[in-house]
Predict the structure.
Amino acid sequence: MKSINKLAGVFAPLIFCLSFTLQGILREDYDPVKMYISALSIGKYGWIQIVNFILFGILLFIFSVSLLRDAKKSNTTMTGPILLIICSVCFFLSGPFEMDPIGTVSSNITIHGTIHGLLGGIAFLLMPIICFVFYYFMKNESNLKKFRNWTLIFGIVISLTLLLFTFATKIESLNKVLSDFQGFLQRLVLMPYMLWVCLYAFKLYSRSIKSYDSNKIPENLKNY
């Protein structure tokens, strides 16, 4: 069961990214370079991305809770898993609380659009923080030494791309220049995070499988 929970963390980003990528290719009314991923929730086929958000949130939540249980059993910090749980809830709720169409004037912004923006802001802010938190607490796990270094790299990359994305959307002069690339810039932040989640979950899944196989071997044969 523990292995299955870890697999949820492997498949969550794979399904999520594959879904919005295929939608971006197939939908004629959508430009993945210019438009946010959440814009896929709008229109006739918007329900597909809404379901995609919800499914990703559920799978990431299952993975995060399994990490929380592992942390409780080993009496280690629960900070990382808790942040992942918060992130999963933000993605889950981003489904039903869909964004407003791009270019909506401030007077016409809806409550669900405002909530979607807040949820997205929290999720994106947590992405580099989660990497740095896990990097710090991986120092006591010798079998994650190499991946710990990669976690630091992912954290730095996500931080830099998040800064670029934030400046490009919040600073008016940059917004005018990069307005046609906001979808691309958003993906520059999101994709490294998704890759990190997938790799980390796969690392833990592989370790749990090895542990399970080792426990099946009789004690008198383990030294042979």
